[in-house]
Amino acid sequence: MQPKPNIVHLPVYQPGKPIEEVKRELGLTEVIKLASNENPFGSSPRAIEAIRGELDQISIYPDGAAVELTNALAERFGVQPDQIIFGAGSDEVILMIARAYLQPGDETIMADQTFPQYKHNVEIENGVCVEVPLKEGTHDLYGMLEKVNDKTKIVWICNPNNPTGTIVTADELEWFLSKVPPRVMVVLDEAYCEYIDDPSYPDGFALLRKYPNVVLLRTFSKIYGLASLRIGYGVGRPEVVKAINQVREPFNTSRFGQAAALAALGDDAFIDHCREANREGLAALRAAFDRLGLFAFPAYGNFIMVDVRRPSQDVFQALLRKGVIIRAGHRHYPTYIRITVGSAEQNAKVIAALEAVLQEVPVQV
Hints:
Elements: H1 19-26, E1 32-33, H2 45-53, H3 67-77, E2 84-87, H4 90-101, E3 107-111, H5 117-124, E4 128-132, H6 141-146, E5 152-158, H7 170-179, E6 185-189, H8 204-210, E7 214-219, E8 232-235, H9 238-245, H10 255-265, H11 268-292, E9 303-307, H12 312-321, E10 324-325, E11 336-340, H13 344-360
């Protein structure tokens, strides 16, 4: 049996190395993972309690429409319930958008260094990926607009961008949306938006109200700390969400995920704590990079991308031997690594380990 020809050469998403695997491979007893932009402070106690409350319901299918969680989000953000769709992480919403809207030969536009699942799902549908180089680590909206043509169906904008951590501002995005033809869907992936308190960051829901072609993506995997439960969501106009819903698999989010997300949504104190701790962690990492003479992109999420001026895979392996897992191997940034902001203790350990590694790995001229 032969698979579809277009998927044979597709890369498989590579998650950060698991802690236990690194311990086994290298004989380490202590390993910290700062590679997958997980919340180092766990999840809300309310979410954990909600999961316990579902233990007696494991044998029963979840609510396929996630009605209670949908209504809570609709009330929180001032939208209608029929504007929201859930997925097993926002990754699945990306998959459903591509499945619902793309036909072979349709073009989509994205940055050349961004979340890889946009390209992956477009290529599965035999779509064409038009990649526009980042400018100083940031989406080049002018360049992206120039690539819009009659074949363009979707533009993907990751804001903050993963892996660089940069943002496009409200003014920049407003200009872009005012120029894009209304027939072209613009997907704003805001997976890390809850970390941001910068006034220049766009209000995605205000843009959604103004531009019918906007679709927002958000997730409970990051600041809410529910990554293992795989629950994210998209928000768009009702007719858009209806089309996406038509390709959704039944029961695609779990009882645990729905219950935990609903509880986490009501724990603003936990979110405020995580945001403040993340801000302090970013400041500590930036200060260390400045001291070490390393350039880092402006960071707005819970991660930072820094130029170590050495082959990133060499630095990755050297850090691994010291019990620190980070992210490397970015195709257009071969000397950059991405580090998730950890707890104060974890940040101190990664700084010390990196400082030692910089002495071991020669600078790339």
